[in-house]
Amino acid sequence: MLLEMVDSSIFQIPVSLALATVATLGYLLGRRTRTTDDNLAVQPRRELRRARAVAREFEKIASLVRRQLSRHHTSLTKFKQRVGQLSNQQHEAAWKELCREAEDMLKPTLRLSTQIANAYDELRQQTNHLMNFTEVRTDPLTGISNRRALDDTLASQFALMTRYEATFSLVIFDIDHFKCVNDQQGHLQGDRILQSVARHLDESIRETDIVVRYGGEEFVVVMPQTDLEGACVFSERMRQLIEEEIPVTVSGGVATALDGDTPESLLARADAALYSAKSAGRNCIFRHTGGHIESIIEDAAAAPV
Asked: What torsion do the CA atoms of 270, 276, 279, 285 make, to the nearest 10 degrees?
């Protein structure tokens, strides 16, 4: 009975997960293989770079799970052998030896369980990145992710935050006086401005970040494993870059996910910071600390040298 429980409840579940991992990896690589030369010629380089990054992550996860299962299978085989050797012995010493063997088997089993759980979370995160390549999660005008992709990304980030206390931040950018651009220069020029801002954001983020067209002239950048200070540095750098490269300016509101936050409350705090930036004259970045809203420039000026 003990042996059957080991076989069914410990070994088969990780194998199923490993097979699912390999199947997902095969699907992704298969799609890349089937892509025609014409499609490759028109795909933006940054999208191909991200696709390769996702493929690499899937490969790493599959390889890691395979190694973990192999090591665990070796431990399981030894345990089976010891159970077989002790099954013919009825004295108390044999029972104590069996208990010790079970204890030794428990440790790598628990470790494998944790490793598999970690692999599951990694799969979930990479699947979220993979979903961002689908048309239903892409803004047709700018080619970046849309609101649906943002919802999926925030759900994934909050799940990782709950399990591992993984910090992440986001910023909402809004193009200043965009209505004037449309009214004075026409909607075609307005579309070019939106595409240019999206391109500059998309080319400046890390492979793990996601830039989203939030609606109208607003953009959101989600930054995993980034604290408030790091998000502010990125946001100010992007504000300066856009001002230098594009004939518009942007305002921004930054917030970091805190205990008790939801996607709605996090976006609301970033939006409140953005409103403060607009009220302060635009072309600046404000942040919401969780307790109050402040300009990142004023905060930097007040910091001791």
From this structure: -70
